[in-house]
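Quick one, T. Sequence first:
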Amino acid sequence: MTRVIVNSGICGFSVTVTAEKREGKEIHISLDTECEMVKKMAEDISSLEMMAVFTGFLNNPVYKAAERHLKHAACPVPSGILKALEVEAGLCLPKDVKMSFIKDKEH
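Structure tokens:
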């Protein structure tokens, strides 16, 4: 089982992504969050094929579900889901991802 916590930023929601390998190449995905949009998205992607990580953005089942349910294109949750899937499938080693804003000093 692989777990990833995604702290989405200014919206204040966090999501715990759990990916668990099942029979064959199927990965069960669960999303624990208070975000109603992500909860709806979870219904569409509760089971994914491990090769979904190699599917392009336009045809990727995670990004298709995000398109249907998320209002913010910059939401990092879809990427976190795919990272968890990648690790659980044995296609990648777990490594934290970080995004930081750099503020210029005012003169």
